[in-house]
Structures are given as C-alpha cells and as structure tokens.
Amino acid sequence: MSFFISDAFAEAAPAADQGPGLAGLILPLAILLFFYILFIRPQSKRAKEQKKMLEALTRNSEVVTTGGLLGKVVDLDENFVQIEVANNTVLQVQRHAIANVMPKGTYKAQAKKSAKA
C-alpha cells in the first residue's frame, strides 16, 4: 500500500513549547489595572460621595438639581424632595436629581438678585 503514499515515521520531537506563560499575562493584567485606576475607581468614589450627600439632605438645605434649578428643600422623603424655587413655588423632584448642596445663603442671594432685575 505504500506505493502511492510514503510511510510517515515519527521522529523524536523537541521539547514542547509551553506558550507565553506568565509573560503573556502581564499585558492583559496591566490593561485591566489601567482601566480600573482610570475609570472604575473614580466612578465608584463619585457614586459613594453622591449617595452620602443625598443621605445627609435635611430641610432648609440649599440645593441645585441636575437640571440647574436652585432652591431650598422644603420637605423630603425616601424618593422625592420638594424644593422651593421662588416664593410660593414648590417643585417636587426625585431625590437622585439633586446634583449639589450649596452653601447657606446662596438661595437668598440669588433671590435678591432676581428681585432687583
């Protein structure tokens, strides 16, 4: 039968190469570490600060919403906050829509400026 096909004889193969090993893992691990330091850690830190700020909200706190409305907290519950944005004008917004807590007196100063104009 070996007339058309030559017989293959196995030779002693050299020692099998084990692949890249530890050196092959360094680059993917470095990329993962880079993304964690650059993106994931700051994002989670900001989320913790935002959650802490929302938990510390009290009545008469002066806040700015994500939409840019400045007002004073009149009432709040677990999910919603009522904000006075002008005399006898109260808006109800979701709690997570609060972007920043402003220093005391900011709301009054802005109200005086708008009353003069």
Keywords:
alpha+beta; five-stranded antiparallel beta sheet; SH3 type barrels; single chain; rod-shaped; 117 residues; 2 domains
Rg calculated over all Cα atoms: 32 Å
Count of DSSP H/I helices: 2
* Low-pLDDT stretches: none
Number of domains: 2
CATH topology grouping of the largest domain: SH3 type barrels
**Architecture of the largest domain, CATH level 2?**
Roll
**Tally of DSSP β-strands:** 5
- Strand proportion: 15-25%
Q: Provide the residue-averaged pLDDT.
A: 86
Taking strands numbered 1, 2, ... along the chain, how are they ordered across the largest sheet? 4-3-2-1-5
Distance between the termini: 106 Å
Largest sheet: 5 strands, antiparallel
- Give helix % range: 25-40%
Quaternary structure of the protein? single chain
**What is the 3D shape?**
rod-shaped
Name of the CATH first level of the largest domain: Mainly Beta
Classification by helices and strands: alpha+beta
SSE succession: HEEEEEH
Provide a descriptive summary of the structure in words:
This protein has 117 residues and is an alpha+beta fold. The protein folds into two domains: 24-56; 58-117, SH3 type barrels (Roll). The chain is 38% helix and 25% strand. It contains two helices and five strands; from the N terminus they run αβββββα. A five-stranded antiparallel sheet has the order 4-3-2-1-5, with helices on both faces. A hairpin with a 2-residue loop joins strand 3 (80-86) and strand 4. The N and C termini lie far apart (106 Å). The mean pLDDT is 86.
